[in-house]
Amino acid sequence: MIDLRQMRQFVAVAEELSFRRAAERLNMSQPPLSQAIQRLENEIGAKLFHRGSRRITLTRTGEVMLDESHRVLAQADRAVAHVKDVARGRLGRVEIGFVLTASYELLPAVTRGFREANPDIHLELHEMTSAQQIEALLDHRIDVAFLRPPLAEIQGLSLERIYAERLVAILPEGHGFANRERVTLKELDMPLFAMVPTNWYTTFQTRLVRTCQRVGLEPEIINDPVHLVSLVAAGMGAGIGPHAVTRLRLDGIVFAELDGLPENLMMELAIAWRTSAASRATAAFIDTARGIAGPMYKAIIQDRGNA
Fold this sequence. Notes:
The protein is an alpha/beta fold. The protein is 44% helix and 22% strand. Strands 8-12-7-11-9-10 form a six-stranded mixed β-sheet, with helices on one face. It has a five-stranded mixed β-sheet with strand order 4-3-5-13-6, with helices on both faces. The chain has a two-stranded antiparallel ribbon with strand order 1-2. α5 packs across α9. The radius of gyration is 25 Å and the shape is elongated. The mean pLDDT is 86.
């Protein structure tokens, strides 16, 4: 039976590709480490390394072993962290993944509300793309994901749309309509940048580009909201982005509500979790997210209706 100590020794050698450096990293001498790897290979029944005269490399079996070892060790580390939380009087731990724009508006509200009601539950936040969050959920590296839908149905995961953001105009201070609270898309008559999250679905991007083209604009798609806002602040053009970017305050830019857009042209946000493995702490966090996101979303819809 392979134990965690063997896995850590193997990972050290696999990452360093040197028995000497790995032994130094593990604070042990080289001969016992070499013997431990040989025993591991004997137990597996396959070579994990190609041993050359000057360097070593991973075999295909070794590459798979490294991936699986990383996964097992990460789970073991999380289990130890959870036990330590309990020993310190905390009732649980929730690992949360999120796309960047979720951290500007929705996520702070949810985490603040949850911590006020559950001070003994520890939260860990990890910024990731939507695709990375799905992988992390399946690997049990996170418990909850805030990501961009739509996504294909994945066995074992639950996905629920909980929030949507209207688009706003981002204008340089020198723009002719910079002093107005509301503008129309057609009035953004200069080079236009539109924010669409990295690896996001093309349906939204297609609708956005076509909407711009109908009024004679050809937007350049920018994936990073900070990059987009920086371009506008530098006077390079105007921008369109989710309402959350209004939290990014830079000198040289102003924000305005954007009127005349189709009702379906909003940036949605979903929450995802493992259906059968949600702890009580995770379930409580999901309920908090629903309770906070719902009223925020209704306020956005009402605001658009009054525009």
